[in-house]
Every structure is written in structure tokens, then in C-alpha cells.
Amino acid sequence: MSILLSSVLNGLSFAALLFLIAGGFTLLYGIMRLLNLAHGALYLWGAYLAAAVISGTGNYLLAVLVAGGVVGIATVIGGVGLFARVQGNELREVLLTIAVSLVLADAALAVWGGHPVGVQAPEFLRGAADFMPVAFPIYRLFLMGLALAVGFGLWYLIERTSVGALLRACVDNRAMLASLGVNVRRLYWFVWMAGGFLAGVAGLLGSIVFGIAPGVDVQILLLALVVVVLGGLGSLSGAALGSLVVGLSYSFATVYAPELLYFIIFGPMLILLVIRPQGLRGANA
Amino acid sequence: MTTLMPQLTSRWTDQTNQNRRFLAVVITLVIVAVAPMFLQQFHVGLLTRIFFMGLLAMSLNVLVSLTRVLSLGHAGLFGVAAYVVAIGVTRWELPFLTAAAVALVVTGLVSMLFAVMIVRAQGVTFVMITVAQGMLLWGAAERWVSVTNGNNGIRGVRPPEFIQTANDFYWAAFAVVAVSVFALWRLHTSFLGTRLRGTGDSPTRMTSLGYSNAWHRFIAFTIAGLFAGVAGILYVGYFGFVSPTTLHVGNSVQVALAVILGGSALFLGPLLGTAVLLTARTWVVPVTDRWNLIVGALMIVTVLFLPNGLAGAFASAWAKLTRRIPRLAGRRSPDQNAPSAPAEPPGSSQPSGTPERPQH
Fold first, then answer.
1. Regarding beta strands A128-130 and A135-137, do their DSSP bridges make them parallel or antiparallel, or are they unpaired?
2. A vs B: CB pairs below 8 A
3. Contact at 8 Å (CB) between B328 and B282?
């Protein structure tokens, strides 16, 4: 009973973290139609930067700003400098994001070395809360709350604000939007920035759970991929749903069938793709 | 229309051209076959690796140049074959060739299973699903310790009895790769190849002509997987060792880089790309640990500045040269502007290796 409960709780908190990780990824796809395979590398850099700030100053707010800000600005520069040149050609864009991720991951290895780094949660989030049969880390409860807040914030931004209306218009008809006098380029900068910021902050949030080590970037990218493919590319509610499915199946698989972990994560996704290629919440293409 | 032209002309051009082409192929084959007698051990090894990794890249190019999709899980199928051989030889104590046959069957089945999953996907979705497939196989290799021995990998795979020296392996690999390349060439020039190309270039027209795009994608993916399996068998025979790194997505990325670096529009382009990459690697790795950084940078440069790869760059440079100095072009009429090396398959003269996406 207590194993079951802790599995559910673990699954939910992992789902929350997955949603936070997949947020930036799904945002870039949803609005720019860019499959950002460098997402894991951006996460990695966010994690390392945050860890450096925390070990230097102990200030978590500063760590969030540095990790998100630096990664966000780097994403804007990369996006404007590299991707503007190949815009409109999906496969070349994808290849470019892979190339960037190789460079970033190897550069991280060169700068920060190969030793795993651990990051502690801030003081007020340490310790455990006591549910009757099990104790559960407060940080993970915090993650659940944060995921709800971020999810709601993004939904509000996209569906209820004027910026969101512009973004949705941009997805539907970029040329028309530009001809109406909207500065589409600036809108893009905003999206690059937001996507990079979310990836960088996710690095901090995730590193408290997973730690940081070379190779984490690929695992993170993979989790983000599964989540958004399951949910439907570029769909926010899909990402939430996908996170729940993957989070819960991951947590149960680690307890009950650790050897088959990857099959249990990817199996449902691959089966789903046969039946419904656009994902659970994806629009009919 | 333009894609039809070379096919017509290649039938109509004089016989001497074809004879010359045949002669060139034979001479190249002979030179490559006798090469190990004059080379050092190290270079024989390098060439052997170029053979089977080049075959892997060429098998990926079936997808890239014909059906116009990019797989980033291709090293996974390559690794499946390598693992099955390794398990067969070390655990079931099968002879190498029997294990290789089993490996081909298994790789074919896995390819078909994966193909079923992706026939309806295109473009970015296709890429994503293949990444996930590749990582699924990697995860199996890493986690399923009781079968795959986890991260330690499986070592001690001996090639068949009749292969004693590195030169023997070179010749065996050369023979297998040459036959495979010939088979791929036949595929590229066959009617099936034309239909696959049709699926890549204009799926709606294929549908209206009564062909099933899904079926052709399925065939293309299975064929690509099978040849990746052949390469994987050679790989494990050469190294005698296989580990999860073999199937890792990073490996798939390097294969994709070999394809675009060499030039997917040219039949032998991926082989050229592999040769350049592997040779560069032997120079770089002793000097610095930053090989991945270099691969990434090379990839950025290729994507941004060499859309048709090295082969395309050479070809356009050659075309420029022959236009300026007509005599160099020999009997070719200068306005034909034929950038083709002898091995270009008909109809692949489309300039870009990747389909243009309609602007929205």
C-alpha cells in the first residue's frame, strides 16, 4: 500500500518536472514549428550555470535569473543568427539543432568537466512532508505546484492576452500578420527568449532531482520528446497529459520492472503513433 | 520534368560513355582490392571501417535521397544486428555466419516493426519517432543486462574461421560491401527506386497514380534497415565487441552527418562523407578530446554552406571550371552542365537533398 502510494506521488511529481522540462520545447514547436533537439543541451547549460551561481553565492533567485537569462539570450542569438538562414526547411533546421546540441554538450564537458555535480534544494524546500504511510520530499510537492502555476501561466499568456493572440495568429498565417504591421521578428525573439528561459530554469529544477552529469542532456531531450509526441506536438494541454502518462508509467516501471523501463516508457508512445500519429491532443494535420 | 531528363539521356547517349563508366568501375574495384598489399596495417583497418560505416551511411541514404525523410535512429538497427551476432556467437555458440543470418532476419523484423510505426509520419515527426526508436533500442541494450550485459557490452566475437588476418577481413568486408552497394545501385535505378523517389518528391501525385505511399515508405525503411544490419554484422566482426554506445543516438547523428557531408544527391556521396569523417577522426582524436565539438561545427557549416555536401560542392566547382575551359570537359557539351560523377543515379540531379517545406 505504501509502495503504491509513494509510486503515485513519485509519478505525479515526476510528471510535474517533465512538464516543466517539456514546456520550452513544446513552446518552440508550437509557435515556431521548430523541433529543437538542442533542448537537452540548453537544459544542461542552465543546470551548470545555476549550480555555479548557487555554489558561489547561495542565492537561488539569482541562479534562476542567470540560468534562464543566459540560456534565453543564447537561444535568441542562436535562433536569429543560425536559424533565420535555413527557415522553411524542416530537415535542415533539425540537423542544425542537433549540431548545436553536440557543440553545446561538448563545450559543457570542456568547461565543467565530467564529474557529476549535485545541487541542493533551497533551505525552505528541504525535508519531507508526512503523509500517513509515507514521507514525501517537500521539494517535489513544490514542483507539482510550480508545474500547475507554469501551465496555467502559459495557458493564460497564449489564450487570454493580446501577445498570445499575436502568437496564435503567427502560427496560423505569418505573412498575413506581418502585412498587418506586426513586427513578426520581434515576436520571434520573444518566443526564442521564452523557450530558452524555460529550458534554462528547467535545468535548475531538474538538477536538484537528477543531479548534473555529461549525458544528462540526451536523457532530458528524450523525455521531452516522448512527452510532447505522446501529447501532440506543440499542444500545451497535450504536454501536460503526456507528462502525466510518462511520469506515472516511469515511476511504476522503476519499482516493478526496472529492466523494461525504456520499453514501458516508449512502448505506449510507439503504439499510440500507429493509431494516432498526431498524438493525444494534437490537431489533425 | 527535369528529373526525367537524365534518365532519358542516359539511355540515349552513346555506348562508349557507358563502356567507359564500366571500365572506371572495374579499375577502381581492382585498385581497392589490391590496396592492402601496399598499405600499412593501420590504413587497411581505416579502409575497412570506411567500408562498413560507409555502407551504413548509404543505407540511410535510401531514406534521405529517395523517400526524403531523415532517420536519427539508424545506428539502432545497425546495433541490433551487431548485438544479435554477438549474443549468437558468445552465448549460443553459433558459427559466425549462422549468427549473421539470424541477425539479418532479426534486423529485418525489427525494421519492419519500426516501419509500421512511421509510415504515416513525415518530416519532423518522422525524425522524432526515429530518435525515440533508436533510444528505445539503446535503452534495451543498456538496461536489459541479463541479455545484453549492460554497459559492459559483449566482447570476444570472433569472425569466421577463414578470416585470419586483417587483410582477410578487409577483403571479406570489401566483397560484402561491394555487393551491397551494387544492390543499392540497382535499387536506385530500378522502377521500385523511381516509385520510392516519387513517394518522397510528390506523395499526392503518387496517390493519384494509384500507388500506396505507406507501402513504399515501409519498403524503403525495411531495405534501409537490412543494409544497416549488414553493416552492423561487419562492425561486430571487425571490432569483436559491441556496447550500448554503438546504438546511441550520437552514432546515428554521425551517420546522418556523413550523408549530408558527402552529399545525399550523389549515389556514393555518403561513402565519401564517411571516408572524410573517419579519416579526419584519426587525425583529430590523438590531438584533442573535442571530437564531438568538431562534428557539431562541421555539421553547422555543412547545413549552412554546403546544402549539397562535398560532392555537390566539387560538382559545381567542376562545372564552373569546365564552362570556363571547355576543353577540360572533353566530349561533353558544355551546356549540359552535368555535375555528375560516373556513379550518379539517374534522376537524382535534384539540387537539394531535403525537400522544401511549403511556406506558411
1. antiparallel
2. 138
3. no
Q: In terms of C-beta density within 10 A (0-12 exposed, 13-18 middle, 19 or more buried), how is residue A122 classed? A: middle
The candidate with the shortest Cα–Cα distance to B245, out of B237, B256, B260, B235, is: B235
What is the C-alpha separation between B188 and B17, in angstroms, rounded? 20
The ipTM is 0.83
Answer whether A99 sits within 8 Å of B146, measured CB to CB.
no
Q: In angstroms, what separates the C-alpha of B145 from chain A's closest C-alpha? A: 7
- Residue B143: name the closest of A17, A223, A259, A153 by CA: A259
Which residues does B58 contact at the CB level (< 8 Å), separation at least 6? B180, B181, B184, B227, B268, B270, B271
Query: Which grid cell sits at A115?
Result: 564529474
B326 contact A CB<8A: no
Q: Report which DSSP code applies to B266.
A: S
Q: How far is B356 from chain A (nearest CA, A)?
A: 6
User: What CA–CA distance (Å, rounded) separates A196 from A198?
Assistant: 5
The whole-angstrom separation of Cα A233 and Cα A161 is 22
In order along its 285 residues, chain A shows pLDDT tens digits of 678 888 888 889 889 999 999 988 988 888 888 888 899 999 999 999 999 999 888 888 999 999 999 999 999 998 888 887 887 777 888 889 989 998 999 999 999 887 888 888 887 778 777 776 777 888 888 889 999 999 999 989 888 999 889 988 888 888 898 899 888 888 888 889 999 999 999 999 998 888 888 888 888 888 888 888 888 777 888 889 889 988 888 888 888 877 777 777 777 777 777 777 777 776 644
Half-sphere CA count of B126, side-chain side, radius 13 A:
23
Chain B: give the shortest CA distance to residue A155, in Å. 24
* Cβ–Cβ below 8 Å for A269 and B132: yes
Q: Are A200 and A43 in contact (CB under 8 A)?
A: yes
Which residue bears the cell 590531438? Answer: B287
Determine contact: B292 vs chain A, CB below 8 A.
yes
* Residue A128: strand pairing partners: A137
Cell numbers that stand for B210 in this block: 494509384
Q: Which helix (H) or strand (E) holds A137?
A: strand A135-137
Q: Which residues in B222-250 are b (16+ Cβ under 10 Å) and which e?
A: bbbbbbbbbbbbbbbbbbbebbbebbbbb
Element (H, E) at B204: helix B203-208
Q: Which domains are seen in chain A, by residue range? A: 2-275 (1.10.3470)
